[in-house]
Amino acid sequence: MLSILCALAVLASGKKLTLESLQEMCRLIDENPPAEELKGIMLLQQALIGDSYGCLNGKEAQGSIKAQIESLCSRVNRVEENMNRLLALRSTEVPGENKIVSLRETVKGKKDTSSEKSGPAAHSGEEQGTVQNSSACYLYGVVEYREGLELECSGIDEKQVYLLIAEGLAAVVHRCSPEPYVTENEELAKTWVERHNDVLEKCAERFPAVLPYAFNTILHDPSKEDADLVVVDWLKKEAPQLEKRLAKVKNRQEYGVQLLWNTRSIADELLQVEQELAALKQNMAGQSAGAAYIYKEKLERLLKDKMEALAANRHRELIEKIRPFCADFKVERNKKTEDGYEMIGNWSCLVAPDQVEALGSVLEGVAEMKGYKVRFTGPWPPYSFVD
Fold it and tell me: What does each C-alpha distance from 229 to 24, 116, 316, 353, 357 come to in angstroms?
C-alpha cells in the first residue's frame, strides 16, 4: 500500500516515470513490489497524463489524481482508526488452546450441524460478517455458578445470551460466526460495546463472582462442529486458573482513581515557596535581554525538575492513602487532558463494597488541596484484574 501511494504521489506531479526511478524510490522506503506492479503504475501514468492518450492535461491530471489519493488516504485512515479502537478494547485473550479468533484473522469455520446444546437453547440468529454460520461462541465472561441461577437477556445485535456450565463455572455466551465484530460505523461499534457491558452488569446482579472478558473475545475450534462443546471443554481445562481469578474478584468491583493538578497554579505556588526558584526569578529582573534569556531558560528547566519531583511525591503519597482500602490496584498510564489540568496519577482499584465509602472520603480530602482534582469513577466490571 505504501509503495503504491508513493508512486501515485510521483505520478500526480506529472513527471515521467521509468522503471528504474520507481525501483529506486521503493528501495528508499524499504519496499520491493514486483516489476509487474511497477509497470502497471507506468501504464497508469501514460493513460492519465501521457501525450498519446490525451485524456487530461497536466494540471487537470495532477488535480484529479491528488483528489483520488486524498480520498483513498482518508478512507484508509478511517478504517485503521476504527480497527485500532476495537483492537484496544479486546485486550484480554482466553488462556488455553488456540481456539480464539483474533481480530486480525478471518477463520472460515464449518457450518454448525449439531443438534444437542448444553445451553438452554441453540442460538443461530443473524450472522455477523460474511460467514453464514454460527459455529463459534462469543464470550462475555465467566461466572461462579450456583444451581438454580439463570440468565435471561439479549446481547450484541439482540443475540440470545445463555450459560454453558462445567466444573461449577458458567461461561456467558451467544452463538456467532467465527469472525470478529468490525464496522466503520462508530455509533454501531459503540452500541456493541455498550451491550457487551450491559450483559456483564446483569451477571454481576445475579452471580457472586464475575470474570469479564473484553469485547470481541470469540471461542472457536474449526475441527469441532459443536461450538458449545468447545466452550465446555475449555472451561474444564482452565477451571483451576479461572477459579483463582474468580476468587480474587469475588464480591469486588473495579473503580478508577485519577489525580490531576492545575499546572499553572502549581507552578505559581512553587515559584513563591521554593527559594531557589524565587531567587532566579528575582535576579532575572533588570538584566539585559541576553542575560534575561539565559536566566529564563535556567528558571524553566529548574521549575520543570521541581514539578516532576513533586508529581512523583504526590503519586507515592496517594498510593499509600488508597492502599488500605483496595484488595488490589494497578498503576495505569496517565492520559492527556484538555481542561488546563495534567494527570499525574491513574489507578485501577479492586474494591469491596464496604470499602468504597472510606476510599471516597480519602479522595475527597486530596481533592480539597489547592490546585488538585480527583476523578473517582465506577463501579465497573473488573477488566483490569482478569489476568
Answer: 55, 10, 48, 36, 43
Report whether 211 contacts 145 (CB < 8 A).
no
Confidence (pTM)? 0.58
Nearest to 167 by CA among 117, 239, 119: 239
- Per domain, the residue ranges of the chain are 2-89, 136-249, 253-265+303-385
CB atoms within 10 A of CB 207: 21
Confidence bin at 171 (pLDDT 50/70/90): very high
Q: Is 254 helix (H, G, I), strand (E, B) or coil?
A: strand
Instruction: Mark out the alpha helices in 186-326 (DSSP H runs).
Output: 186-206, 227-249, 263-273, 275-284, 289-322
What is the rounded (10 degree) CA torsion for 91, 95, 98, 99?
Answer: -80
How many beta carbons lie within 10 A of that of residue 277, not counting itself?
Answer: 17
* Local confidence band at 15 (pLDDT 50, 70, 90 cut-offs): low
pLDDT of residue 96: 35
For the domain 253-265+303-385, what is the CATH code? 3.30.70.2690
- Report, as an integer, the average pLDDT of 145-170: 91
User: What is residue 349's DSSP assignment?
Assistant: E
Rounded to an integer, what distance in angstroms lies between the CA atom of residue 315 and that of residue 345?
6
CA neighbor of 197 nearest in space, from 209, 185, 182, 214:
214
Reference 216, options 128, 154, 140, 157; nearest CA is 140
